[in-house]
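Per your request, structure below.
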């Protein structure tokens, strides 16, 4: 069922209607697509560190960058900031998953719930909690990370 039909059916349920109105805000119901599934598109990823300009990484069309994407000094404190756009319907349960490998060994894994978002023409931004890069002689070297932003039905591009 699309968002327009859903709003029509929920007009008799006052609490659900208020919840949807709070999420949707000033969304023009005529501009909402007829698609059942919400669409979330990640536009960019920024790495924020104190004392230097933000590193803004545009997301490639296929979502898979090749080669060295960025370098951080050991022991650096940083935050990730995602810019994304939601269209077609409300997306609930948006979550972030990050896995880090050094050579073929998994060294870290993190998951965090980002939230629920309504469709709107302006992009959203979400800043992750601060993290610290590994440090010390044994931590030096190249790392590979796989970051995923997804919801429970897997419709993030």
């Amino acid at each position: 069922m699309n968002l327009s039909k859903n709003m029509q059916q929920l007009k008799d349920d006052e609490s659900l209607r208020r919840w949807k109105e709070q999420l949707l805000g000033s969304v023009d119901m005529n501009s909402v697509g007829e698609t059942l599934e919400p669409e979330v598109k990640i536009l960019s990823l920024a790495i924020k560190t104190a004392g230097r300009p933000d590193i803004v990484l545009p997301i490639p069309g296929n979502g898979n960058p090749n080669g060295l994407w960025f370098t951080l000094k050991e022991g650096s404190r940083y935050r990730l900031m995602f810019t994304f756009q939601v269209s077609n319907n409300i997306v609930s349960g948006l979550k972030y998953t990050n896995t880090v490998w050094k050579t073929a060994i998994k060294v870290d894994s993190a998951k965090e719930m980002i939230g629920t978002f309504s469709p709107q023409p302006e992009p959203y931004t979400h800043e992750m909690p601060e993290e610290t890069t590994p440090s010390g002689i044994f931590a030096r070297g190249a790392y590979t990370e796989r970051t995923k932003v997804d919801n429970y039905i897997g419709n993030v591009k």
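The CA atoms of residues 50 and 125 lie 19 Å apart.

Regards,
D.
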